[in-house]
Amino acid sequence: MWTMTRTTARAATVTTEPLPVVGNARHRRRGAPARVRIMGWLLLLVTVVSLSTTLVTYNLLLREVDRDVNSALEQEAAELRQVLTVGIDRGTGRPFPDVRTALSAHLARQYVDDDEVAVAWTPAGPILQAREEPFRLGNHPEVLDPILTAPTTSGTAATPAGEMRWIRVDAVGAASGDRGAFVVGYFIDRDRAEVNSTVRTLLLVGLLGVVLAGAAAWFVAGQILAPVRLVRRAAAEITEHDLTRRIPVDGRDDVAALAEQFNAMLDRLDRAFATQRRFLDDAGHELRTPITIVRGHLELLDDDPVERAEAVRLCTDELDRMNRIVTDLLLLAKAEQPDFVNAGLTDVTELTSDIYAKVRTVGERRWRLEAIGEGQCPLDGQRITQALVQLAQNAVQHTRVGAEILVGSAVRPGSVLFWVADSGPGVRPEDAEAIFRRFSRGSGGPGAHRTGAGLGLAIVRAIAEAHHGAVHLESAPGRGARFTVEIPVPPAHPGGPQWPAS
Question: Which of 147, 159, 177, 335 gets the highest tally of CB atoms within 10 A of its CB?
């Protein structure tokens, strides 16, 4: 008389994460691993959905049982009311003589199922009952009498066979004036037992779903967190002496982005440690000589005023050289920092004029402004000035008094150039790359000067590279050297550069 829709559900259990303990990180109690927390939250979600689905299914099935039972009882009552309204016996084709005859004829045509009962009652005779009933309601007056006398025509009654839903149809003879009642009952315990059996099946299926969901969550969480575990292991293996470990990046998800950022962080740390080590190595290497010279002169210092004055002069000269070396090393170390260059829109013409005015005081040479660029470009004017002054000092060191030194600038599509050209001995091809390294002065040739610490051109290259540019050398032995600092400039930069007409 009714149908049930079987649904599957999943249940789950969940583990909760303990609260972190505030204190020393070395003694801090560790919480549950991320893999366990992910699995726990997923199983919690599955549990809530599964239990909610089971509860809703249980209520819907019980409502369906009640609706089917009520519908069946109402149908039986409607059929009897129709028989009483017509008042014609379908077997004889004549009107019913009294109510008892009508109820008896209707009851004889009823075929009840295993959970139904039907009785007809009239005051004039014994109770009439349907055939093959599972429960003989007419034999239990303690159940039937309250139904016949109830003020309502439907309800629920407790019987030895279980809970029974019933409906009563009262009949009164139009001609004879006699009365009677027809009662139909339905036992709903078996239907409810089937509902309970269905819910138990849902719970068992849900328990199986817990196991499968837990295994799937453990596997999926492990796959998702695999790069995170690589990050953790890589971080544990990193020391200040070994920053070469990197994490392979696969895919384009958030975890891959985390691995990329971690690798980028390692690159920055590697550069920072390399800069620090290079600074310490360079400082230790280059400062050892002047310190030895100063110490030797102080140990040999006597009371002769002339020798004392000469020793003080030599020591002061070495200390000044040490100060210049330390200043240059600090500048090279700072070149690795992101704030080394503060680029701003700079007028190339004005900057070139200022540079030319400053380099003319570096040495007694024939300074000439070869060319001057026009336009505004994004660069750090102070750093460019520092680089050009360094190139000018380098040119002075490799030329004689009165030699010609050229200074100039040019603005081209996509770049701006600054250069210093001298007429000195030039640079050998084998030294073209070496002279830009720290503490490298090149092999030189006859009459080559060896003053300075060998950091000047390294500083120039650091400034150029901080602008994402480069330093170019054009030279040949005996024909002088031209050092050009080239800075790339985006053509679409707002406000400049203003390219000159070709």
Answer: 147
User: Bridge partners of 472?
Assistant: 484
Q: How far apart are CA 325 and CA 455, in angstroms?
A: 8
Closest CA to 387 of 321, 483, 322, 479: 483
Q: Which amino acid is at 444?
A: G
Nearest C-alpha neighbor of 329 from the set 462, 484, 472: 462
For residues 68 and 1, the answer to whether their CB atoms sit within 8 Å is: yes
Short-list 15, 16, 13, CA closest to 46: 13
Tell how strand 344-347 and strand 376-379 pair up. Answer: antiparallel
Q: Tokens 């979600």 map to which residue?
A: 45
The CATH topology of domain 344-488 is Heat Shock Protein 90 (3.30.565)
Specify the amino acid at residue 144: L
Residue 409 to residue 391: CA distance in whole angstroms: 14
DSSP-assigned letters across all residues of 111-125? ---TTEEEEEE-TTS
**Strand locations in 149-263, DSSP E?**
154-159, 162-172, 179-187
As given in the structure block, the two tokens for residue 58 are 């249980």
Sorted by where each begins, the domain ranges of the chain are: 254-334, 344-488
Report the b/e string of 103-127 with b at 16+ CB within 10 A: bbbbbeebebeebbbbbbbbeeeeb
Q: What is the pLDDT along the chain (502 residues), one digit of tens a residue?
A: 233 333 333 333 333 344 444 444 444 566 778 888 888 888 889 888 889 999 999 999 999 999 999 998 899 889 888 888 888 877 778 888 888 888 888 888 888 788 889 999 988 777 888 766 667 888 888 999 999 999 999 999 999 888 999 999 998 876 667 889 999 999 999 899 999 999 999 999 988 988 898 899 899 888 877 777 777 777 777 766 677 777 777 777 777 787 788 888 888 887 777 767 776 776 666 666 677 777 776 777 777 787 778 777 878 877 777 777 777 777 776 776 777 888 899 999 999 999 999 999 888 999 999 999 999 999 999 999 989 998 999 999 889 998 999 999 999 989 999 999 998 898 888 887 888 877 665 554 444 444 555 678 888 999 999 999 999 999 888 889 999 999 998 865 444 444 333 3
